[in-house]
Design goal:
Layout lengths: L3 E15 L5 E15 L34 H5 L10 E7 L8 E7 L11 E6 L2 E7 L5 E7 L8 E6 L14 E6 L2 E6 L7 E7 L7 E6 L2 H4 L4 E9 L2 E10 L6 E7 L8 E6 L19 E3 L1 E3 L2 E2 L5 E2 L8 E8 L8 E7 L20 E7 L4 E8 L2 H5 L8 E5 L8 E5 L17 E5 L5 E5 L2
Antiparallel strand pairs: 1-2, 3-4, 4-5, 5-6, 7-8, 8-9, 9-10, 11-12, 12-13, 13-14, 15-16, 16-17, 17-20, 18-19, 21-22, 22-23, 23-24, 25-26, 27-28
Bound molecules: calcium ion (4 copies).
One calcium ion (CA) binds next to loops.
C-alpha cells in the first residue's frame, strides 16, 4: 500500500492590486497551500497487522496484531539465559492499556531440571516499561495466549500450565486467566482440572463469548473415556466447563494448537500437532491417537469433525512441532499454513537434547492448499551455524512481520535466546529473518 503524507503550509501571499489612483499597492493575505509529498521508498509501506485477519478469524487467540519481532526479553529482565535448561521465557504480545501500542508479558518458567520445576514470575511490560511482576501460581507455564475475554477493549492473558514432569501421573497445572486493565490486573485460576496443558487456544466457538480449549496431553491416562474440555466465559468469576467431542486419546500428542477458520465457513476450525511420529503403544491404545499434524473442521459449539481429520504433510526427522501460524503471506487471496519445527524422531530420550536429532535447531514448513487438502510449498532451513554450533535449542516460534518495510511479509524465527544479547552463542545470527522476495522466494537476511 502507498501512504502519502499531506503537509499543510501556511503561506503569506502578496498580491498586487491597483487603487483608485491607478497606483499599484501590495495587499497581504494568508492562504493555505496543501502540498503532497511522497515519502522515501522505505516508508511507503506501513503494514496494518490488524487487517491481516477478518471475520471470525479476529475472534481467536491466533489473531495477534501487536506481535513484534526482535525484542530482547532477557535484557528486559536483566538476566543471562542458560545454554540448555527447562528455564525459558515464554512471551506474548498484547494491548494491555488500551493505547494500541504493543505490550508484552513474559512467563519466566522452569528451574534447572524438568523435575525441580518451580513457579516463576510473570512480568508485564507496558509501553516498554516493566510495569508488573506477578508471582506465577502455575508450576510450569507452557503457553501464553492473548484475547480480550471480557470485551472491555483491553487484551487479557490465558496461561496454559503443564506442571513438573515427574510423578505418576504427572501432577499438572490448572489454567490461569489474567484480566488486564489500564490500572492493574486480576489473576484467577479457571477450570477444575490440573493437567499437562502443553497447549490450548482461545476463540468464539458459538454465540459471542470466548471459550478456552484445554489440551491436556496426559488426560488419556486419567480419563481414557473422556473428551477434551472447553471453558466458556460467562463473567470474570464464572466459566462453564463442557466436553467437546474430541476424545482424550486423539490429542495425546497434540502439543501445539490454534483456532482458525481454514475453510471459510465462518466457524473456527482447529489445527493440532506436536510429535509427528507413530509409537508402538498407539496400535494397542484404548482409542486412536492422531499423531500427525492435522485440521479438525469446526462444527460449532465445541464440536469438531473428528472422524475426518485433514492430514498435513510430514517432514521425517523434524517431528517436533513448536508453532503454527496462518497468514496469506504472499497476498494471493488464500492463506498459507506456517509450521515451525525442531528435530525429533521416535525412540530418543525426550528429556535430553541430541545434536541435530532431537530438540536441536529449527525448520519452517509452509503449506498451500484449500479447505480439504494441503501440500508443502516451501521449507525454510536454518543457517549453517545452527547445524554445526551444538546449540541445543528447541523452542522456536515464527513471527510474521514486514521487517524491511517493502509490503511483503517476512518470517522471523524467534525464541528467548535468538534475540537475547546476553546469549552470545547466537551473536553470529542475531537479527535473522527470512525476507520474502518478489519471486516468492524467502532469503536469509539479518536485521542490523
Ligand atoms: Ca479485557
Ligand atoms: Ca471453518
Ligand atoms: Ca497466500
Ligand atoms: Ca518484507
Amino acid at each position: 500500500m502507498r501512504i502519502n503524507k499531506y503537509i499543510i503550509l501556511s503561506l503569506l501571499i502578496i498580491g498586487c492590486q491597483k487603487d483608485d489612483l491607478d497606483e499599484v499597492v501590495l495587499l497581504p493575505c494568508e492562504c493555505e497551500l496543501i502540498v503532497e509529498i511522497q515519502t522515501p521508498s522505505e516508508d511507503l509501506c506501513d503494514t496494518n497487522y490488524s487487517n491481516l485477519a477478518s471475520g471470525v478469524n479476529k475472534n481467536t487467540s491466533h489473531f495477534q496484531p501487536m506481535n513484534r519481532p526482535f525484542v530482547d526479553y532477557a535484557e528486559a529482565l536483566n538476566i543471562d539465559l542458560p545454554q540448555y535448561s527447562p528455564f525459558v521465557l515464554w512471551t506474548q504480545f498484547g494491548n494491555f492499556n488500551g493505547n494500541n501500542e504493543p505490550d508484552y508479558i513474559i512467563a519466566a518458567a522452569g528451574g534447572t531440571s524438568w523435575e525441580t520445576t518451580e513457579p516463576g514470575e510473570l512480568i508485564v511490560v507496558i509501553d516498554g516499561v516493566v510495569s508488573y511482576s506477578i508471582p506465577n501460581i502455575q508450576t510450569f507455564t507452557r503457553k501464553i495466549s492473548i484475547y480480550d475475554i471480557n470485551s472491555d477493549g483491553i487484551d487479557d492473558v490465558v496461561l496454559f500450565g503443564a506442571g513438573p514432569e515427574f510423578g505418576d501421573p504427572w501432577p499438572g497445572d490448572e489454567n490461569v486467566v489474567i484480566y488486564m486493565s489500564p490500572g492493574g490486573y486480576e489473576l484467577v485460576e479457571v477450570g477444575n482440572i490440573s493437567g499437562f496443558h502443553h497447549s490450548g487456544a482461545v476463540g468464539v466457538l458459538s454465540g459471542n463469548t470466548p471459550s478456552i480449549l484445554e489440551l491436556d496431553m496426559h488426560a488419556f491416562q486419567k480419563r481414557p473415556d473422556g473428551f477434551v474440555k472447553i471453558l466458556t466465559y460467562q463473567s470474570d468469576n464464572n466459566w462453564v466447563e463442557e466436553d467437546t467431542n474430541i476424545p482424550t486419546h486423539h490429542i495425546a500428542r497434540s502439543g501445539q494448537s490454534e483456532f482458525y477458520d481454514f475453510d471459510g465457513d465462518g466457524v473456527l476450525d482447529i489445527i493440532l500437532g506436536g510429535h509427528e511420529w507413530e509409537e508402538s503403544w498407539m496400535s494397542n491404545s484404548l482409542g486412536p491417537v492422531q499423531w500427525r499434524n492435522h485440521i479438525l473442521r469446526g462444527l460449532g459449539g465445541g464440536q469438531f469433525d473428528v472422524d475426518n481429520p485433514i492430514l498435513l504433510p510430514i517432514i521425517p526427522n523434524w517431528g517436533v512441532i513448536t508453532d503454527f501460524d496462518i497468514y496469506d503471506i504472499d497476498r494471493d487471496g488464500s492463506v498459507e499454513i506456517i509450521i515451525t519445527r525442531t528435530t525429533g524422531i521416535d525412540g530418543i530420550d525426550a528429556s535430553m537434547p541430541n545434536d541435530n536429532i532431537y530438540y536441536d535447531g529449527y525448520m519452517v514448513q509452509i503449506l498451500k492448499g484449500n479447505a480439504n487438502s494441503w501440500n508443502e510449498w516451501k521449507r525454510l532451513e536454518q543457517p549453517e551455524i545452527m547445524t554445526t554450533g551444538n546449540l541445543h535449542h528447541p523452542w522456536f516460534k515464527s513471527i510474521v512481520y514486514d521487517v524491511n518495510g517493502d509490503c511483503m511479509l517476512d518470517i522471523v524465527p524467534e525464541s528467548d535466546k535468538l534475540n537475547a544479547q546476553s546469549f552470545t552463542n547466537f551473536n553470529a545470527i542475531r537479527g535473522l529473518y527470512y525476507e520474502q522476495q518478489q519471486n516468492g522466494e524467502f532469503e536469509i537476511k539479518y536485521k542490523q
